Amino acid sequence: MCGIVGYIGDGQATPILLEGLKRLEYRGYDSAGVALYEDGKLQIRKTKGRLTALEDLIKRECVAGSVGIGHTRWATHGEPSDINAHPHVNSKGTIAVVHNGIIENYMYLKERLQQEGYKFVSDTDTEVIAQLIDYFYKGDILDAVINAVSRLEGSYALAILSTYEPDKVIAVRRDSPLIVGLGEDGNYLASDIPAILKHTRNVYILEDGEIAVLTRDKVTVLDSLGKEIKKEVFEVKWDVEAAEKGGYQHFMLKEINEQPKAVRDTLAGRLPDGSDVKLDDIKLSADDINKINKIFIVACGTAYHAGLVGKNLIERLAKIPVEADIASEFRYRDPLVDEHSLTIVISQSGETADTLAAMREAKKKGSRILAVTNVVGSSVAREADDVLYTWAGPEIAVASTKAYTTQLVSMYLLAIKLGLERGTITEDYAEMLKSELRQLSEKIQKILDNQDTVQKLADNNYTAKDVFFLGRGLDYSVSMEGSLKLKEISYIHSEAYAAGELKHGTLALIENGTLVIALVTQKHLYDKMLSNIKEVTTRGAHVIAVALESMREIEKAVDDVIYIPDCAEEVAPVLAVIPLQLLAYYMAVARGCDVDKPRNLAKSVTVE
Amino acid sequence: MCGIVGYIGDGQATPILLEGLKRLEYRGYDSAGVALYEDGKLQIRKTKGRLTALEDLIKRECVAGSVGIGHTRWATHGEPSDINAHPHVNSKGTIAVVHNGIIENYMYLKERLQQEGYKFVSDTDTEVIAQLIDYFYKGDILDAVINAVSRLEGSYALAILSTYEPDKVIAVRRDSPLIVGLGEDGNYLASDIPAILKHTRNVYILEDGEIAVLTRDKVTVLDSLGKEIKKEVFEVKWDVEAAEKGGYQHFMLKEINEQPKAVRDTLAGRLPDGSDVKLDDIKLSADDINKINKIFIVACGTAYHAGLVGKNLIERLAKIPVEADIASEFRYRDPLVDEHSLTIVISQSGETADTLAAMREAKKKGSRILAVTNVVGSSVAREADDVLYTWAGPEIAVASTKAYTTQLVSMYLLAIKLGLERGTITEDYAEMLKSELRQLSEKIQKILDNQDTVQKLADNNYTAKDVFFLGRGLDYSVSMEGSLKLKEISYIHSEAYAAGELKHGTLALIENGTLVIALVTQKHLYDKMLSNIKEVTTRGAHVIAVALESMREIEKAVDDVIYIPDCAEEVAPVLAVIPLQLLAYYMAVARGCDVDKPRNLAKSVTVE
C-alpha cells in the first residue's frame, strides 16, 4: 500500500498535495515526495521519513506550480530511502510517476530496458514504469502511457506528469484504488477519498483498466482501449474521519475486509504454473534447505499463532522438526539452536523488541534467519539472512487481522517450497495446495459477504462473561488467534483449548450458558470434535461452530453454525479465522469498546 | 501407600479385618488379603482386585480365628496379582507379614537369602521380610523381628503373625504410619485411624523405630533397642469421615500435606552418594541414551505441565531436543517420531486414554517408550519399555497435587541421568542438583508449616472473577499448573501467561483490581519479571508474588508476597507450586466449592 495524489488547477499545487498526503499517511509513511511542473521542468522533492520530513525539505527548497503529483510510501521493492522514494522519473527527467501497487514482471522489463541502454538509479519497480513510458513516447504522452501499462503485470494505481504535455495529469489503475475529484478550481486525484474531501465531494471512482486524463477544467475517462466513457459522479456523504476508514466504522473492520486483497497481493507472482513456488527474496539454496535439521519459529502474540500453523505445515510437508516458541521465552531459555538450524521470525512491524532480541540470540548461535514481515527495511528485515514479505499494507488497528492471514499464507508458501526442495511432497500435491491457495482470496470474500450472520450471533452473545474456543490440530492454532482477538478488543476473558484437553481440568468452568466456539474444519478429526462438543453441551454450554459448508449435519449437535467454504483442510485456517475476527469485532462493538485502540495495548511492541 | 490392619482379641477376626480394610481402601486397591491363625496353621486368603474380590473369595473359602492381619495394596514392587498380594509368608508358611512402604535394599537381601537356599515366589520386597524373619528366628519371634528390621533400608509399617507365638501380633514402623487401637474385647492395628474407629477411640500413635507387641489383653511398646516405653493414649475425637482424611477437611488438603513424604519416597534409593542417580526400572543403556536424538514428552492436564518442566530440564542438562505435547494433539498430528526418538509418557493413573493412545502411536513409529506413572501394573506401565515410578501413593482428590510434585521429581532424576550419561553436565553440577533434591522434602514442609499466610491471602481474594498467573521460563510452566488448579476446584477463570507475552494482547484484560499471581523464582529473570509486574500494577492489578526468601526487595513492587525457601532455580518449581496449590484450595473452600469432587471432572480420564 502507498498513497498517491495529484492536482491540476488554478491554485498552488504544493499545499494541496501535502494536505492530501497527510490524509493518506495511514497507507504508508516510510518516505514521501512530490513532482511539480515549473518553468518547463519537473521539480522533484522527495525524502525518506514521514511526511514532516518532506514538509521540512520543501520549506528549505521551495517549489511552485499549479500542477503536480505526490506520494507517501510503504516500501515493497527497495528499502525506504531518498532514492527509492517516489516520484520516479525517466532518465531524461521528463516523465514523473507515482505508483501504488506491485509490478510483478518488473525484473523482466528492467532487464529488457537495460538492454536498450536505459540506466536505473533506484531499486523500485516504479522507476521501470517511468522508463517504459519514455520508451513508448513518440509524441503523444497518453499513447505512451497506454502502451506502457499494457505491458505491466501486477497491481498499480499510477499518476503521471510529463514536461511534454504539462497541462495534463494522467491516471490509470488496476487492482489498486484510485479516485478523481471534480473541483471548482481544478481537478484532483487520490488513492482514497479523504485526501480530496476538503476540496470537493464529487468524485469519479475509477475501475480496473480505466484511464483518466485530468486538465485544469476537465476530466476525461477512457477505457483500456482508449475510448472515452461516461462516468457517473459519486457524491461523497461521509465526513473525513469515516472517509479515512473507507466508510467502515473502524480501521479493524476495514482491514478485515481488505484481506481478500492482502492475501492476493501476498501470493502475487509467487505461484507460477506448475508445482513450484517463487520466493524472490529468499536466497536459501536447495543445498541449504537440505542441510536444515531443525526449524525454530519465533514470534509474539498473533504472529506466534501464525507460527503454530507454520509448525504444523512445515512438519507435515517438509518433515523437518519445527519448534514454535514465544520470543520472550525463547530468548532466555538457551534453546538448542546451532548452525544447522533455520530460525523463522515473524513480525508484522519488523520492530517487535522481543522478536528482535530472540532473532539476535539465534543468530549468535549460528542459525540462519528467515524473516516474515510486513515492513520493508524494518530492523527484522535488515538483520535477517532472507526475508519473505507479507503484502498486507499498513495495519492501523491494534488488533492484527490482515497481517495474520498474510503471515499464514507465507507459511504455506514456505512449507511447499521446503517440501518440494526436500522431495517430501509430490508435485501433484504441491499443485493441489497451490490451487487451494489461489482460491483463498475469493473464498474469504464469500465469508465477508456473509458477515451479517456473524454480526447477528455477536449481537446475541456479546454479554458473555467467559468464552472458550475449542479445536484440534490446525483448528486449535486458529482457536488461539480467535481467542486473542476477542480478548484484545472486547475485554472478555476467553481462552482456547485443545479440544481433547478440556476434560483434563478446564471442563470444570463450563456451566449453563457458557459460550463455546468450536472449530470444525478438519475432516479427519470431525468425530473426535463432535465428542468434545457433546462434553460441553451436556454441561449446558451454548455452542457456535465454525464448520465447512459440507458439514451440514453438525447443526444437530450445536446451537449455531457459521459456515466457511469447503477447502483442503491444510488451508482451512486462513478461512476459519475470518468469522472469528468478525465475531470479536462485532462483540466488541456491541459492548461499546474502543475497537481500534484497545486499552493497555500498543500496535507494535518495541519494548521487552 | 498400602493399608494394613491387625486384630487380636475375643471376637472373630475376619469381619474386623475386612471392615478395617474397607476404611483403608483410599490407600490402595489393586489387591488385598488376610492371614489368620487357625488350628496351628496360618490361613492365607489373598487376591488381585478390589476388596470385594477378597470378600467373595472368603465367602467361597471361609476362614475363622480370633487373630489376624490384613492388607490392601497399592503396588510398588511387582504388578498387582494374586501372588504379589499380601500377606507374604516364609517358605515354611509359619510367618506372615503385611507391609506398607518400600524396602530399598530388598534386592541385596533377596540375593543373600537365595544364597542361603531361600526360594521366592513373588516379585515383592515384602516376601524378603518374611524370609528374613525366618532366617533370624531362633525360638523368639520378637527377637527375630528386631533382628530382621534392623537390616531393612527404606520405609515400612509391618504387621507380623506367626505360628510360633500365635497369641501375638507384632508391629513395627519406620517412615510409614501405624497406630494401635486399645479396645475392650481385643487390640487393633492399622495404618490409619478410620480402620479401627468403630471399635475404639483410644490409640497409640507409633513413632519411627517403635515396636508394638499386641496380645489379647495387652499392648507393649518397645523402642528400637527392645526396651519397653510408656506411650500416651491419644483419644480420637474425629468422626469416621474426618478420620479418613487424616483430620483434614478434604483429601486434597491431606494430599498437599503428604507431599514432603511423597517427594522423599520418590527420591528414596535413587540418589546414592556421588553424582550418579539410580533408576532401577529403566533399562536404557548408556549406548541407548547416546543414540537418542529427540525426546517427546506426552501427557494430559497436570502431567503435561510436569512435562513442560521436563522439557526445560532435559534440554538444559542433556542437550537433547525435547518436545512436550498434549496427548490428544500429539496423537493426531502425525508427529516426526522415529526409532531414534524416546517418548516419555506421564500419567498418574497410567490409564489416561489420550496418553495411552499417544503412547501406542509413538510405539508404532518405532520410538522407545519410557513411562512415568504412579500405578504399578497400569496399562501405561505394562506397555512401556521402561518405567519410572512416582511413589506418591493413591491420589483421591480429583485435582492432582502430590502426583505432580513427584512427576517433577522424576523429571529431575531423568534429566540428571541423561546429562551424566551423555557427558553434558559435570559431576559437580549433578551433585549440586542431587543435594538440592534431597533438601526439597524439608523445604516443602517449611512452606506447609506456613500455610496460614496463604489461607489469609485466599480469604482476602476469593471473590476474584478472573485471575492471571505470570512467569518466565520454569516459572511459566509452574504458572500453568497453578492456574489449572484454581480453575479445577474454584471455577474461577484463570489463565497462565508467559510474562513477556502479556503485552502482546492479553494485557487488555487487566483492569483495576484484577488479581495477578506472579512467580519470581528465577534469579536471572528477576529484572524482566519486575518490568512485567510493573506493566500490570500500573493498570491497577492486585499482585501476589511467589518469590524466594532472599528476594525481600520485591515487597516494594507488589501487594503481597508468599516466600518459598531459597533453592537452586532448577528445582524451584517443586517448591513454587505448593503455595499455588494451597491458594487454589483455600480460595475454593472460601467459595464453598466441592473441592475433592469438582463438577464435570473425573479423577482419571479413561475416554478420549
From TrEMBL, chains A, B:
Its EC number is 2.6.1.16. Gene3D superfamilies: Glucose-6-phosphate isomerase like protein, domain 1 (3.40.50.10490), Glutamine Phosphoribosylpyrophosphate, subunit 1, domain 1 (3.60.20.10). Pfam families: GATase_6, SIS. One of its GO terms (molecular function) is glutamine-fructose-6-phosphate transaminase (isomerizing) activity. The active site is at residues 2, 603. CDD domains: GFAT (cd00714), SIS_GlmS_GlmD_1 (cd05008), SIS_GlmS_GlmD_2 (cd05009). PROSITE patterns: GATASE_TYPE_2, SIS. It is found in: Cytoplasm. It is an enzyme of class 2 (transferase). The keyword DNA-binding does not apply. Residues 285-424, 453-598 form the SIS domain. PANTHER family: GLUCOSAMINE--FRUCTOSE-6-PHOSPHATE AMINOTRANSFERASE, ISOMERIZING, GLUTAMINE--FRUCTOSE-6-PHOSPHATE TRANSAMINASE (ISOMERIZING). Homodimer. This is Glutamine--fructose-6-phosphate aminotransferase [isomerizing]. It comes from Caldanaerobius fijiensis DSM 17918.
